[in-house]
Amino acid sequence: MAKSKKKAEVVFLVCEETGDINYILRRKPGGEKLKLKKYSSRLRKHTLHIEKKK
């Protein structure tokens, strides 16, 4: 029997300073939460964004 593939899940990147959802990603489940420096349009600068599931 073949192994079943894990489906990609939808993940939101939320700005730590404003709480806005600025980015939506699809990624494989498992692993650590993403912590990336991304651009926040409200603050007009790069801030830390953290992964949040729906």
TrEMBL record:
One Pfam family in the UniProt entry: Ribosomal_L33
Keywords: Ribonucleoprotein, Ribosomal protein
Record family assignment: Belongs to the bacterial ribosomal protein bL33 family.
Protein name, UniProt field: Large ribosomal subunit protein bL33
The keyword Ribonucleoprotein is annotated on this UniProt entry: yes
InterPro entries in UniProt: Ribosomal_bL33, Ribosomal_bL33_sf, Ribosomal_zn-bd
A single Gene Ontology CC term: ribosome
Superkingdom of the organism of origin: Bacteria
GO BP, sorted A to Z: translation
GO molecular function: structural constituent of ribosome
